[in-house]
Write a structure and sequence with these properties.
single chain, about 350 residues, mainly alpha, 4-stranded parallel sheet, 16 helices, 4 strands, about 55% helix, Prot-tyrosine_phosphatase-like, coiled coil
Amino acid sequence: MRSGQPLTGTNGRRCKEDEKLINATLRAGKRGYIIDTRPLNVAQQARAKGGGFEQEAHYPQWRRIHKSIERYHILQESLIKLVEACNDQTHNMDRWLSRLEASNWLTHIKEILTTACLAAQCLDREGASILIHGTEGTDSTLQVTSLAQIILEPRSRTIRGFEALIEREWLQAGHPFQQRCAQSAYCNSKQKWESPVFLLFLDSVWQILRQFPCSFEFNENLLIMLFEHAYASQFGTFLGNNESERCKLKLQQKTMSLWSWVNQPSELSKFTNPLFEANNLVIWPSVAPQSLQLWEGIFLRWNRSSKYLDEAYEEMVNIIEYNKELQAKVNILRRQLAELETEDGMQESP
């Protein structure tokens, strides 16, 4: 489950209806976990503004865990530092590594993936109910719920399943795309609410895709395309800040859906992973620092030619297709051999 913060305030207000509602999700003899994506001190400070967190006395069957996922201007500054480092061709190796580390981008990725893995472990290994929230429930909350589903649910790793995940966990859940994806990292003026929350999610998905290259039906191109259309698009899918705004603007009548374009057979082939083999197992990504890499397809796309990578990709596709042809021939020969052996057996029998 996901939600916004409870409005406990400084007086420690409680809502018995809320307590009954989330207790109703508990299985017999099981406890639940509330994962708050804010550090404890931030959650405590929110009480002064009417927000807060669940009190243990009112939620005795739930264990509250605080994780630290950054938001808003901190993430935007991190993106700006990373882009500046990637575009600076003058510095040496030490300077490059120093600026990459100073951006803290991969640290943010690690925090998000770690929290998602925690939620997935509580669900998969303990069969526990999970409630995830931060402040509004429309940023870091969605990163965690989405990634936990990708880890646990094989359908979320298919093209249609991933599209449904974004529709459900980002668009319908109210992620304010218009505010968060206003001007990217290249604008001189700072927008108060701008933050690369969705890009961090896509980067986290890419990290898992890189570690499990055969478990995803889609490839990196789909993630890059979604990043581009979140910031600037001829489709109406990512316009506005929530479903209410999109209804008022009548975007469904006035614009085309991004998915209707992506799902055309001529386009779909660009986003299909030739290595995909359906995997019904849970996949556990490594969050060790050595396992996380800079997403070159986004951050170094203009700095180096993709010619050789494209050629290597085409060669890989050719090898996979040739392997399928050989496998089909092997299957035919096996059937023919089985038929011949059956015929021989019938001739030898009296």
